[in-house]
Amino acid sequence: MHTKACSLEYPCTNVTRFPVPAEFVDWKVSFPDYKPVVYTAQKVLEKPPWADPDISSGPVKEALKYNDLDTYYKTDRRSLTGKYEVIQGVPRNPVGRTGMIGRGLLGKWGPNHAADPLVTRWKRDSSGEKIHKDGKPVLEFVAVQRTDCSEWALPGGMVDPGEPVTYTLKREFGEEALNSLELTPEENKRLHDLLDDLFHHGIVIFKGYIDDPRNTDNSWMESQAVNYHDDTGKAFEKFALKAGDDAKNVRWMDVSHELRLYANHNDLVKEVAKRLNAYW
């Protein structure tokens, strides 16, 4: 079930979705009154490199290969949830109705793949001892504040065409949490060499559909989230957090049940806390 993907106010716009009560989200449930709003953002229709052609306006040069690796458009259209339906030439959201058709703010028809690095360490006092709450150690994670909606989130982003997810995780963390785009080529190389060491061992905590407010009936977010835990706290002494790219702020944030994060990022952080037996 998704909830944020059915939010009436579509993010960063004045567009309102058709209301979808929770009991009518599932495609198997009859909803004869369903009249989804048609919307694709102008910046998507302007055909930037990260966007598909507008198939809703007529035939395109090469048909999109759904549920497959689309070599012509250099896009992996396979879903982490399994095979999805294609109805009247367009993909159908595997989770259910959203109140909107088209691509909204998303570039790809069908799954839009992202990667979310979840970098953690133990919160420590001035003497270096772990801080505890309710008998459990407190975790900290690197969070960024998004420029588009001002919500706090993991420093992730979209997988570029042909890019391994392992590289996306490192690249996005560098761009959003360390402002790598502003570094010289020499500084960037040193930074990525350091990140290689930290990002060498990660644990996949989630792969699948994301309850993202940008989702539509035809385009949706999927992600692979990986936890990189700095158990000693020494690895990150070499880094200075600095917001960049799509982030306007960055900081170490305490892990707790009071978090309010973008999309399903609360669930991802909670899963890591559970795995590491940390306070939640």
Description:
There is one protein chain. This protein is of the alpha+beta class. The protein is 15% helix and 26% strand. It has 4 helices and 15 strands. Strands 7, 10, 11, 12, 13, 14 and 15 form a 7-stranded mixed β-sheet that branches. A two-stranded parallel sheet has the order 1-6. A hairpin with a 5-residue loop joins strand 10 and strand 11. The protein is globular. The model has no long low-confidence stretch (mean pLDDT 92).
Oligomer class: single chain
List the helices and strands in order: EHEEEEEEEEEEEHHEEEH
Mean pLDDT: 92
Q: How many helices does DSSP assign?
A: 4
Instruction: Choose one word for the global shape.
Output: globular
Major pleated sheet: 7 strands, mixed
In total, the number of strands is 15
Attribute tags:
280 residues, alpha+beta, 15 strands, 26% strand
Give a concise summary.
The protein has 280 residues and is α+β, with helices and mostly antiparallel strands. Helix content is 15%, strand content 26%.
List the helices and strands and how they pair.
Elements: E1 37-40, H1 42-45, E2 69-70, E3 75-76, E4 86-87, E5 90-91, E6 100-104, E7 110-122, E8 132-133, E9 136-137, E10 139-146, E11 152-153, E12 157-158, H2 165-177, H3 185-198, E13 203-209, E14 219-230, E15 247-254, H4 265-275
Parallel strand pairs: 1-6, 7-14
Antiparallel strand pairs: 2-3, 4-5, 7-10, 7-12, 8-9, 10-11, 10-15, 13-14
